[in-house]
């Protein structure tokens, strides 16, 4: 069982590294993640000097990762599933690994792990470069900065796993990407501003909970920042579990 699981993970790693799409996706994350941080650091050069201000500014340096980057990671994960259905390679995959949950779990490990590592590295470099360009030194020990540095890759990883889950459920690249991006950037935001019901729905919208965690928490939600992260993780796990069950039950 363990040997088969490790073989499935290795197979997914090989498939991921053998196509150009992931490299383009990761390149975009690096360019935008570092580009936004460098641009902001340059614009704010000399604009503040106190440590508290440096600490609370961290989330701004990470906009390229926790706004644009998470969308790219989610798309990359979607394509990691849907392209196999599109080109018919999912059948040989299931033939090689008859236990279908192992295939989805292997993709979870590969895409989730890659997303976490890249987001962590780009996020750290972005914060360091942004702070350095302001000319006020580098401070990475503040509470907001620490939460952002580990929270951003966790949030990005969960977004990628949601993309993976939607891809496994929908099986169609364009449809899955539209659902994920619409859900992430439009659907939840529209619901949150609806008259009368918006304020009651907002605390239960997954992506808004994720961003609430990154921002440090807001009174709009029923729990603190870490409660929002736990809720977002629970929704991700539920969606991933559903994707595993559906993949196991229906034909390839």
Structure report:
This protein has helices at 2-17, 21-43, 51-56, 58-61, 63-87, 90-96, 100-134, 143-170, 173-192, 198-201, 206-215, 225-249. It has 252 residues and is mostly helical. It has one domain (2-249). α1 (2-17) crosses α7 (100-134), α5 (63-87) packs antiparallel against α9 and α11 runs antiparallel to α12 (225-249). The radius of gyration is 19 Å and the shape is globular. The two termini are 22 Å apart. 39% of the residues are buried. The mean pLDDT is 90.
Order of helices and strands: HHHHHHHHHHHH
- Cα distance, first to last residue? 22 Å
What is the radius of gyration computed over CA atoms, rounded to a whole number of angstroms? 19 Å
**Extended strand count:** 0
Number of domains: 1
Mean pLDDT: 90
Number of helical segments? 12
Name the quaternary structure: single chain
Which segments are poorly predicted (pLDDT under 50) over 5 or more consecutive residues?
A: none
Sheet-strand content, in percent, reads under 5%
Task: Give short descriptive properties of this protein.
252 residues, mainly alpha, 0% strand
Concise overview:
The chain is mainly α and 252 residues long.
Task: Describe the secondary structure blueprint for this structure.
Elements: H1 2-17, H2 21-43, H3 51-56, H4 58-61, H5 63-87, H6 90-96, H7 100-134, H8 143-170, H9 173-192, H10 198-201, H11 206-215, H12 225-249
Helix pairs in contact: 1-7, 2-5, 2-7, 5-7, 5-8, 5-9, 7-8, 7-12, 8-9, 8-11, 8-12, 11-12
């Amino acid at each position: 069982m363990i040997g088969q699981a490790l073989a499935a993970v290795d197979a997914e790693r090989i498939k991921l590294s053998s196509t150009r799409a992931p490299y383009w996706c990761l390149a975009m994350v690096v360019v935008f993640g570092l580009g936004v941080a460098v641009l902001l650091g340059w614009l704010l050069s000399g604009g503040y000097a106190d440590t508290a201000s440096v600490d609370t500014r961290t989330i701004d340096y990470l906009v390229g990762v926790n706004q644009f980057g998470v969308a790219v990671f989610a798309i990359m994960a979607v394509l990691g599933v849907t392209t196999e259905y599109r080109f018919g390679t999912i059948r040989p995959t299931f033939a090689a690994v008859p236990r279908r949950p192992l295939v989805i779990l292997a993709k979870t490990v590969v895409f989730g792990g890659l997303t976490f590592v890249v987001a962590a590295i780009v996020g750290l470099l972005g914060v360091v470069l942004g702070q350095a360009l302001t000319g006020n030194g580098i401070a990475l020990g503040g509470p907001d900065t620490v939460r952002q540095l580990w929270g951003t890759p966790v949030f990005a990883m969960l977004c990628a796993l949601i993309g993976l889950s939607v891809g496994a459920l929908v099986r169609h690249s364009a449809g899955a990407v539209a659902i994920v991006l619409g859900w992430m950037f439009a659907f939840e935001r529209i619901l949150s501003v609806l008259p009368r019901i918006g304020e009651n729905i907002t605390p239960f919208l997954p992506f808004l909970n994720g961003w609430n965690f990154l921002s440090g928490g807001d009174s709009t939600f029923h729990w603190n920042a870490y409660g929002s992260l736990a809720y977002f993780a629970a929704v991700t796990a539920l969606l991933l579990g559903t994707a595993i069950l559906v993949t196991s039950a229906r034909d390839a």
